[in-house]
From TrEMBL:
Bilayer topology term: Peripheral membrane protein
Keywords from the UniProt entry: Cell membrane, Cell projection, Chemotaxis, Cilium, Flagellar rotation, Flagellum, Membrane, Signal
A Pfam family this chain is assigned to: FliMN_C
Domain Flagellar motor switch protein FliN-like C-terminal per the UniProt entry, residue ranges: 161-231
GO CC, alphabetical: bacterial-type flagellum basal body; plasma membrane
Protein's UniProt keywords contain Repeat: no
Subcellular location: Cell membrane
Protein name, as recorded: Flagellar motor switch protein FliN
Gene3D superfamilies reported in the protein's UniProt record: SpoA-like (2.30.330.10)
Annotated family: Belongs to the FliN/MopA/SpaO family.
Origin species: Leifsonia sp. NPDC080035
Domain of life (superkingdom): Bacteria
Main subcellular location of this protein, as a coarse class: membrane
Amino acid sequence: MNMAIASGAALSLGQAQAAADALAAVLPTGAPLTPLLHTGEAFAGRTGNAVVASFVGAVSADLAVVLLEAPALVDDGADGAPVVALQDVLQPALESASDTFGAGVLDDARVEDAAELFSDPSATVFELTGPAGVAGWFAVRGRGSLDRPAPTSAIAGKLARISNVEMALTVEIGRTRMAVRDVLSMEPGAVIELDRSAGSPADVLLNGRLIAHGEIVVVDQDYAVRITKILDAAEELD
């Protein structure tokens, strides 16, 4: 899914600010960053190493974030390659920003030049400021309307075009948060405690979005999941 070339429908300032606040809250930077509206006539930031992603849902949007200093995990390892790719480190922050738009799907983040997005008059650009000043920038551009959803027949026609597209379905039995030092110190036999008790339903996610709950079963010696509840859009956002 590539970033749109044409100018998009502008998001309200409130929508853009909510997305920027959500992104800044989970950016993996050493110090917390505050998004401030960029009021200059033209954006002059470095956009060649921007991490961008596109969101499709009730409203569609393009998002891009640039950090002047890469997070620690992106530093080169012993073999000269990054420990973790920049787009993988910033994907959760972009997901947090896109969550403010409601139900939808965010594609995988990628690194590319986002000069077109940052210079688009319909995009809203924020300076990500920290104790030492500007640490990066965030841009968001709407490509849909929250007020005038497409007719049901039009939506059905568009969905028919992608009905054969394969998507990743994931079953999640729990989560936890760990410090990087604890992850690096793991060895075979280590036990990781999850945030869910035994017997609790598993989450079923489509491309990272929660769509259902189920229970783990065994079918012909293979693990499977029996769906117990399908979530609608409102429940998915709770």
